Amino acid sequence: MSKIGLYLHVPFCEKKCPYCDFYSIHASEEWLNLYTDCMIKRMQYNSFKLGRLADTLYFGGGTPSLLRGTRIARLIKQAKISFGLQDAEITAEVNPGIDLDDFLQGFRAEGGNRLSIGMQSADDRELKLLGRRHTFAQVVQAVETARRVGIDNLSLDLMLGIPGQTVESAKRSAAVCAELGVPHVSAYLLKIEPNTAFYQRREQLQLPDEEEACTLYEAVCDELERHGLRQYEISNFAKPGFESRHNLKYWHCEEYLGLGPAAHSFLSGRRFYETRDLRAFLAGQPPIEDVDAEIPAGSPKEYAMLALRLTEGLQDQKYSARFGISLPTHWKRSAQNYAHAGLTECWPGGFRFTRKGFLVSNALLAKILYES
Ligand code: SF4
Predict the structure, then answer these.
(1) Which of 35, 46, 45, 47 is nearest to 74 (CA)?
(2) Is residue 10 part of a domain?
(3) What H or E segment, with its residue span, contains residue 50?
(4) Nearest-CA neighbor of 151 among 111, 192, 207?
(5) How far is the CA of 159 from the centre of ligand 1 (A)?
(6) Does the pTM exceed 0.85?
(7) Ligand 1 centre and the CA of 299: distance in Å?
(8) Quick check: 258 and 274 in contact, CB under 8 A?
(9) N or C: which terminal CB in the chain sees fewer CB atoms within 10 Å?
(10) Distance of CA 323 to the CA centre of its chain
């Protein structure tokens, strides 16, 4: 049986960023301890129930570094007992500006080997506009601290479309990531989500229009690739061999178990998720089935939608190994219709979206997978 990915959602932040709609609440010592004890029990229960091994572990948030060293060490130790984690990629998201020394001691001691650092921008003015609590100097400090404890597998997050951001400043942030020598960068376009402070004042924000956002995206993609960070997914770039093993499981439609409030899972042909409520998690509320009649979990359409996020695209060989049939010819024919516009690239064994195609991927997916 193949190994799964294990995702643990850590729902704590010092303060809510005005653009963020991830589930997180203010952390108190009491909540952090209750959460850790409960998560350990949840891992023990799921290990007993599922009997599966994992080869990736990802602490997302929220701000996992708020757990500090002792608690993160306990969680990794239990994850190893419950899910094996032999030769695993073990990642934690961390925020610059929070004292990382203590956290990293515990993380590293138990085998943590990858960090995703919430940099967002190299420009302090943009960081302030985003409501971030750190400066660029603190990003540099976080990178140095990680390397000092022996973690070189680092990823930096970049935000595109920050109010007032220019192509030049976005390219500068991308170049700075390369200058810092990290092997992985994630670059996401700012999306104004309902129920956020940014949404309330969206009219006052100087946000880029669609065309400007596309220009920013393409400029940053070019800049990162120019520095050897190859695009492998719509928003992700890596030096060869440093692609996120955990996130690739999502895009390859492989199985993963998500534990913690708001965590999602795909396991044994089912998708399910936990509610966005720490109290419900602590009370042991079972996860909720995530049923989508249009795109059943693990179906060929879902597999295709995820594969087309990747620059490797949708490949006949992998598709038939999974489903026992070739890629539908009407998908291939339809994809071919967009090649002349530079939105797709097709070859006898499959097709993929180009960078221009990524910018309109939802419309392309609808045309190719549903209307062909
Ligand atoms: S630190 Fe991250 S998870 Fe927490 S509020 Fe800010 S963006 Fe959201």
Answers:
(1) 35
(2) yes
(3) helix 29-50
(4) 111
(5) 13
(6) yes
(7) 32
(8) yes
(9) N
(10) 26
Residue 69 domain-assigned?
yes
Number of domains in the chain: 2
**Backbone phi, psi, residue 71, to 5°:** -70, -40
What is the Å distance from ligand 1's center to 17 Cα? Answer: 5
17 CB less than 6 Å from ligand 1?
yes
Last residue of a domain, one of 232, 250, 268: 250
Task: Report the C-alpha gap between 196 and 220 in whole angstroms.
Answer: 26
Q: Are residues 226 and 338 in the same domain?
A: no
Residues 321, 234, single domain; the answer is no
281-282-283-287 Cα dihedral, nearest 10 degrees: 20
Domain containing residue 173:
4-250
The pLDDT tens digits for 170-197 are 999 999 999 999 999 999 999 999 999 9
66 in a structural domain = yes
Residue 108, pLDDT > 90, answer yes
Each residue of 35-84: pLDDT tens digit? 999 999 999 999 999 999 999 999 999 999 999 999 999 999 999 999 99
Beta strands at 314-315 and 350-353: parallel, antiparallel or unpaired: antiparallel
DSSP type of residue 276 = S
Report whether residue 60 contacts ligand 1, using a CB cutoff of 6 Å: no
Tens of pLDDT, residue by residue over 300-331, are: 999 999 999 999 999 999 999 999 999 999 99
Answer with the one of 217, 250, 283 that is the final residue of a domain: 250
pLDDT at 98: 85
Atom of ligand 1 nearest to the CA of 19: 7
